[in-house]
Amino acid sequence: MLCSGLQAGDLKINKMGFNPKHSERMNEDLKKIEQEVNELTNKLSDLKKEIHKVIVGQEEVLDQIIVSMLASGHILVEGMPGLAKTLMIKSISQALSLNFKRIQFTPDLMPTDILGTEVIEEDEHGHKKFKYNKGPIFSNIVLADEINRTPPKTQAALLEVMQEYSVTYGGTQYAMDKPFFILATQNPVEQSGTFPLPEAQTDRFLLYVLIGYPTESEESQILKQTTGKKPEPIKAVMSGEDLIKLQQFTRDVHIEDELIDKVSKLVRLSRPESSSVEEVKNYVDFGAGPRAGQAIILASKAHALLHGRLAVTPKDITSVVYPAMRHRIMLNFRAESEGIITDQVIKELVNTAKL
Q: pLDDT digits over 262-290, tens only?
């Protein structure tokens, strides 16, 4: 349920030329919208319940994945092997009743293995022609598993589809079905056999989520759950149409100009050439671009909607600022040598921007 009543300002309804005679009709329309939003946000709660049939804990990570989907963005999840990254994403696709494809990225994977290729076909009259066979990228949810196990040439095959939501092959553009998401997992770059994603690629991910080890109680529960009877199968509780409607409502969530100004200030403070933050001057090579601010605002709107609010609060922003910023700030050698990580710099930015 929504935490507060839906108001005209919450959905940016324009009051210019408002006629009092239409107030009753307007109130009825708002009630219908409120009812629809309530029904859809209740489905989000059902979605999380279904996923937790097989996933123990990881509440924050799950929220951030759902936030990314509500904001129509792609997400990159990093963690050590065996932390259920793949299982979590697969479970989400099952609960959403959407087409799902998994691509295992390996050192010998080629771009055509992802995008598809042309083959020669012969018709009944003996005429030969080229036909484009679509690759596994053509799905609603694509799991790019261990994306940094493949060389940059193959990683780059995702650049167009992540930005334009289409694939161009042989001079013809093929649009993706909606909704469309790429949910990628990667192992820490310190591990052998990994190819770090270039900045132009990571910037196309709305959020960069780090998944950690479970707590002691969660790990005990995992051992009990995975070595006993099989859990109940995950039921589909949402459709693609429901998700598209929620994406539309996400953009209508209200955010005050004051908060937008604070997000803008935070992003600008991350740039060493104009920043007043000492940590940025000392440890940052390149700061975040405008896309970081867009990601923070869209993700904070989605976070508010996920938690039953139709207006963004500072808490929503601080909940998403780390995954929205950590892959958009490039640290220098001094930071690496002193053991400084990006999240430490972001913490100073948040404090300076007074979020």
A: 999 999 999 998 888 889 999 999 999 99
- Count the helix, strand and coil residues of the chain and give each as a percent rounded to the nearest 5: 50, 15, 35
Q: Which positions ≥6 away from 262 have C-beta within 8 Å?
A: 314, 317, 353, 354, 355
Per the document, the length of the chain is: 355
- Cα–Cα dist 244/246, whole Å: 5
Same domain flag for 215 and 235: yes
What pTM value is reported for the model?
Answer: 0.82
CATH number of the domain at 306, please: 1.10.8.80
Q: Are residues 217 and 305 in the same domain?
A: no
**Boundary-marking domain end, from 252, 269, 293:** 252
pLDDT of residue 24: 63
Segment holding 205, helix H or strand E: strand 205-210
Final residue before a domain boundary, out of 229, 252, 275: 252
Domain count of the chain?
A: 2
State the DSSP string of 51-65: HTTT--S-HHHHHHH
Angle CA 158–160–164, to nearest 5:
125
Same domain, 188 and 320: no
